[in-house]
Specification:
With 289 residues, the chain is of the alpha/beta class. It contains 13 helices and eight strands. The chain has helices at 3-16, 31-41, 51-56, 61-72, 89-98, 112-128, 145-148, 158-168, 193-202, 217-225, 235-245, 252-256, 260-282; strands at 20-23, 45-50, 79-86, 102-105, 132-137, 172-175, 206-209, 228-233. An eight-stranded parallel beta barrel has the order 1-2-3-4-5-6-7-8, surrounded by nine helices. α4 (61-72) packs parallel to α5, α5 runs parallel beside α6 and α10 (217-225) crosses α13 (260-282). It is globular, with a radius of gyration of 17 Å. Bound molecules: zinc ion. Zinc ion binds at residues 85, 140, 147, 181, 210, 232.
Amino acid sequence: MNRTEILQLFDRARRGGYGIGSFSPRNTVLIDSVLGAAQAQRSPVLVQMSANEMNWFSCDPETFARAYFAAKKRFSAESVLHLDHTKDVDTVFRAIDAGFESVMFDGSRLPYEENLSLTRRVAEYAHARGVCVEAELGAIGGADKLETGSDETLYTDPAQAEDFVRRSGCDMLAVSVGTAHGVYPVKNPRIDFDRLMQIRRRTDAVLVLHGGSGLPEETIRRAIREGVGKINIATDLELAFQQVTGRGRMPNAETLQLPADMLAEGVRQVQALVEDRIVRYLLSGGKAD
Ligand SMILES: [Zn+2]
């Protein structure tokens, strides 16, 4: 899907009152779970992997993109290949060249102007190739260092968000409004909906909620009502897979060596989880084109 089509997809979602999930399979095998769920529930989805995940699971943009496009042939799903958190501009360019249709450049830990100018550089390269760009302003922390490598949290400033989107040219903006990566230490994390509304009023960019794992469904539904378009869900998939394998994080190649029946069961369980998120949290079931 190209940038225009992806933005139309989010436009449709906003008008239709549903969100679109960006799911991290963590390994190439579980791409089938995300596309299978999208097909079964007729829901649009994004399939994502971050630079940190690629390092951890010994995968790279080319391998992941190859696996994604091969899997895509086996399913009928409206889906987008997305690069999640990546701090290194060259890695972002490499992913674009490998076929990623949407990319996140994460300069949230950089000084404001530096984040802005690098995001603009990424947007110029990406847009010339029909690729969508997500940026982050403020900092989303949390226990899952796999995604960002940091647990510091800094809330997004609405006025800055407006300036940032306008000057950087990014299409999507990850906002920090109280969600966190990984498993939440409390049962009901407090989301700053007022801040979210203020950001929504000031910009037309697709707003992205990171840390969608472990959030109550009502919180996600409300965030969608308040203007969030894309919801990232990663940790939940990994936990569902570990329930089946009984093991912690495994390199991609090692996952491929698991017994076939265990692998098949893992794919099934993760697909069930993604379908549940589509139906109960995102309300995107039946919305595929
Ligand atoms: Zn994230």
